[in-house]
Write a structure and sequence with these properties.
InterPro entries: Glutathione-S-Trfase_C_sf, Glutathione_S-Trfase_N, Thioredoxin-like_sf. It holds the Pfam family GST_C_2. It comes from Pseudomonas migulae. The protein has about 300 residues and is α/β, with parallel strands linked by helices. It folds into two domains: about 160 residues, Glutaredoxin (3-Layer(aba) Sandwich); about 130 residues, Glutathione S-transferase Yfyf (Class Pi), Chain A, domain 2. It is built from eleven helices and ten strands. The chain has a ten-stranded mixed β-sheet, sandwiched between helices. It is globular, with a radius of gyration of 19 Å. It binds glutathione. The site of glutathione (GSH) has 13 residues, from helix 1 and helix 3.
Length: about 300
């Protein structure tokens, strides 16, 4: 069986979400450290252009976006579940809200000038400049707009006040009783705020939220060991992609298997990935592409939040 390989870097919020997902499931995995800024030649050799962090690789199958990574890990090990029975919609909907709305607040608060000065204190000015330019590129061309620090500060007490209220009354230790994807999608945003002294009080001021965050972080990251990006490319090259899912589906826009298409995120990091559409299911799209270094790979995307276009 192929190993789970996570392409990520330590300070990425969504990578922290993926690490916690792996920890919650008690899975063992390999860790490939990637650059936080473009270019990422070894990663894009696998994804075909998708640049966001993290990416999960299993042999010659490449999974983009933590929303889909969670579903893939659920297939790997059904229990404990990210999408508990009877909470399939509410857990996924809350997670999508946290991954976009709470994420935007966290990023805006951590990147406000007072906080940047502390967080990037040890980074040379050219590196800060390159990082800012990279992130401007990341956010161009998509539907996501950046939230001003003022608006993020303004709305933060509403988000945290509601959470504090719910968690004080909660019948159980997690957002919806048992742990679910909702907890992980919220936790990585608060973890990011806690990692900078200027923004940590924005979480610490809420005791029930802090106690809950401690419980979620307590799942840890599972057992992992390092792998180089060259080794990961070799794994892909030597592997055969997994069989396609056994799901019949009528594609609402008439796309068919075998068509040459491009798939891209709609919000930000909208770099298109070109290839042959192999599968379009309710949750997942699969593209076949061939790479000089990675060989034949199947790149998987969530349907929600991604678009398909004919080439
Ligand atoms: N919807 C994506 C969001 C991923 C995302 O925004 N990741 C950030 C890092 S936290 C990113 O890609 N930043 C730019 C980069 O790493 O190149 C997911 O769930 O995986």
């Amino acid at each position: 069986m192929s190993e789970l390989i996570l392409h990520h870097y330590p300070t990425s919020l969504f990578a922290e979400k993926a690490r916690l997902l792996l920890g919650f499931k008690g899975l063992s995995w390999r860790s490939v450290n990637i650059s936080p800024v473009m270019p990422k030649p070894d990663l894009t050799a696998l994804t075909g252009g998708y640049r966001k962090t993290p990416v999960l690789q299993i042999g010659a199958d490449i999974y983009c976006d933590t929303a889909l990574i969670a579903r893939r890990l659920e297939q790997e090990k059904a229990l404990p579940a990210f999408f508990p029975e009877g909470q399939e919609m509410i857990s996924a909907a809350f997670a999508a809200w946290a991954d976009s709305v709470v994420f935007q607040h966290a990023v805006s608060l951590v990147f406000q000038p007072e906080s940047i000065a502390v967080r990037f204190a040890k980074m040379p000015p050219e590196a800060i400049k390159a990082f800012v330019a990279d992130r401007a590129g990341l956010f161009s061309g998509g539907s996501a707009t950046r939230l001003s620090a003022e608006q993020a500060r303004h709305q933060w007490p509403t988000i945290m006040g509601r959470l504090e209220q719910q968690l004080q009354r909660e019948q159980g230790d997690f957002l919806f009783g048992d742990p679910s994807i909702a907890d992980f999608a919220l936790a990585h945003c608060l973890w990011f705020l806690k990692a900078t002294p200027v923004t940590a009080p924005l979480v610490d001021a809420y005791p029930a939220v802090s106690a809950w965050l401690g419980r979620v972080m307590g799942f840890g990251h599972g057992a992992f060991s390092d792998m180089t990006s060259e080794e990961a490319l070799e794994v892909a090259r030597n592997a055969t992609p997994a069989a396609l899912p056994d799901e019949r589906f009528d594609e609402p826009n008439g796309f068919e298997a075998g068509q040459q298409v491009v798939i891209a995120a709609t919000d930000y990091g909208v770099d298109p990935v070109a290839g042959e559409l192999l599968f379009a299911g309710r949750e997942e799209l699969i593209l076949r592409r061939e790479d000089e270094r990675g060989g034949v790979v199947h790149v998987h995307f969530p349907r929600f939040g991604f678009r398909i276009e004919k080439r």
